[in-house]
Amino acid sequence: MSSEVQARELVDGRRAGRRSLPWRSLRLLGVLAVGVALVASATGVVSATPSPAREQGPAGCGVPAAGQPNGKQWPAEPGMTIDPTAHYTATLITTCGTVTVALDAARAPRTVNSFAFLAGERYFDHTRCHRITTDGIYVLQCGDPTATGMGGPGYQFPDENLAGATYPAGTIAMANAGPGTNGSQFFLVYRDAPLPPSYTPFGRVTAGMDVLDAIAAAGVKDGSSDGEPAVDVVLDSVAVRN
């Protein structure tokens, strides 16, 4: 890894501060800033609306389900409603296929609780995965209702599970703008990413790595190694169950 590291910043929608992650463009190691949220009701169950049949496009992607992000905002982190000793599964139904994630509530309870809350509020429904990195860190970024890299739910919460954190393929982790600034954006690692232990990992993909691989293979829309995916990746729905 080059000793020269530049900062790539993403602005949180609630504050003037910025989310930063180390990044690489072609020859510099890069990092994708991400913030994610999942949802669980008080009973730990959130239903997902099935996606209708769609015309297939590049990488097997189809037309997004009808609807727009609701863009809700909250003044503070939601109260704890999940059981940290329980097992939770998130199902992300995207225009390019379904990705299933086992959430780590034991090691990242506040993160999983926020993700579950936002999922239950349908905050992620109809949101676009607005960034993919194909050189250096290999991640797909989602969770921003504005699809600009600047959106968030209006609240922030602390980092968790950072001691010895690594980011192998299949990791789902939060973005941040520095310590304790997690919001709604998150990233999915489709190939081992040499990131520093600065981004809360809160689950692992258990099915759908082929979906992420196909999205990555399609590349970046402008032909670079970091930017908007070439294919239209939209989260039609996100649900969390235990």
Record keyword descriptors for this entry.
242 residues, mainly beta, two-stranded antiparallel sheet, 2 helices, 9% helix, 25% strand, disordered N terminus, EC 5.2.1.8, Cyclophilin-like_dom_sf, Cyclophilin-type_PPIase_dom, peptidyl-prolyl cis-trans isomerase activity
Overview of this protein structure:
It is a single chain. The protein is mainly β. Helix content is 9%, strand content 25%. The protein has two helices and twelve strands. The chain has helices spanning 109-120, 209-218, and strands spanning 6-11, 18-23, 88-94, 97-103, 127-128, 131-133, 139-142, 171-174, 186-189, 201-207, 226-227, 234-241. The strands form two sheets. Strands 5-12-3-4-10-8-9-7-6-11 form a ten-stranded antiparallel sheet. The longest helix has 12 residues, at 109-120. The chain is globular, with a radius of gyration of 16 Å. Residues 1-57 have low confidence and may be disordered.
Alpha-beta classification: mainly beta
N→C terminal distance: 40 Å
**What Rg do the Cα atoms give?**
16 Å
Share of residues in helices: under 10%
Order of helical and strand elements: EEEEHEEEEEEHEE
Question: Strand portion, in percent?
Answer: 15-25%
Q: What is the mean predicted local confidence, pLDDT?
A: 81
Could you give a short account of the major beta sheet? 10 strands, antiparallel
